Amino acid sequence: MIALVTGAGSGIGAAIALRLAADGHAVAVNDLSLAAAEATVAQIAAAGGSARAYAADVSDEAAVGAMVAAVTADLGAPEILVNNAGFGHQAPFLEITPAQFDRMFAVHVRGTYLCTRACLPAMLDRGAGIIVNVASQLGQIGGVELVHYAGAKAAIIGMTKSLAREVSARGVRVNAVAPGPINTPLVEALSEDWKTAKRAELPLGRFGETAEVGGVVSFLCSPDAALFVGQTLGPNSGDVML
């Protein structure tokens, strides 16, 4: 199958792309940075997988349209879409500027909308497709100094449920993944005191690895997940239990 993974130049997105390629899918690796996307493609190629790199800002309608058109011409219409593109930013609510708030929602929420809007018609025409949206446990429980981030992730969870109700009967399965603390450069840059305290809160006692999130996405993209519709799976070390 043809899989498009956004924000796959590093971190969780790269791990998802690597896992889907290992599963035998041809992967279109998107990132804002072409160099980052190409680095992931190189890792996939080294492992014997098939992938191509595509640079695009997922919040830009024209850029998304051009990217999906290029993927379709090069590989075929995406049969799997993983909306992973995003970024983090922490600030007290009153210090979040309107521009910062708007950019957070533009990338996470508008980006998910635009990429889905671009890929969905071909899926519906085929009567088959898989969409996985990467949210966060903070979209379920909130986070201090993360109103804009948690709000955007909560919106993605709501979008996932609503679209699943709309298109599942037409053969397109839509689900979400809401990771907890994962060993990424963003988390690794936090203070040792914070990391020690957070690990102590987790029933599992450790942070997750990006490959473990990739495994959850792999499952949702497999026939074994045929009954999963509008669900939000939580690889979060037990931090959130629903």
Structural description of this entry:
With 242 residues, the protein is of the alpha/beta class. The protein contains 9 helices and 7 strands. The protein has helices at residues 11-22, 34-46, 61-74, 98-126, 138-141, 147-167, 185-188, 192-201, 210-220, and strands spanning 2-5, 26-31, 50-55, 80-83, 129-134, 172-177, 232-233. Strands 3-2-1-4-5-6-7 form a 7-stranded parallel sheet, with helices on both faces. Strand 2 (26-31), helix 2 (34-46) and strand 3 form a beta-alpha-beta unit. 45% of the residues are buried.
**What is the total tally of β strands?**
7
**N-to-C SSE series?**
EHEHEHEHEHHEHHHE
The fold-level CATH name is Rossmann fold
- Judging from the principal axes of the Cα atoms, what is the shape? globular
- Please, how many domains? 1
What is the CATH superfamily classification? NAD(P)-binding Rossmann-like Domain
Radius of gyration: 17 Å
Strand order of the largest sheet: 3-2-1-4-5-6-7
Determine the strand fraction and express it as a percent band: 5-15%
Low-confidence runs (pLDDT<50, min 5 residues)? Answer: none
The CATH class designation is: Alpha Beta
* Ends distance: 32 Å
Fraction of residues in helix = 40-55%
- Protein structure class: alpha/beta
Q: Can you summarize the main beta sheet?
A: 7 strands, parallel
Can you count the helices?
A: 9
List the helices and strands and how they pair.
Layout: E1 2-5, H1 11-22, E2 26-31, H2 34-46, E3 50-55, H3 61-74, E4 80-83, H4 98-126, E5 129-134, H5 138-141, H6 147-167, E6 172-177, H7 185-188, H8 192-201, H9 210-220, E7 232-233
Parallel strand pairs: 1-2, 1-4, 2-3, 4-5, 5-6, 6-7
Helix pairs in contact: 1-2, 1-9, 3-4, 4-6
Family: Belongs to the short-chain dehydrogenases/reductases (SDR) family.
Keywords: Oxidoreductase
Protein name: SDR family oxidoreductase
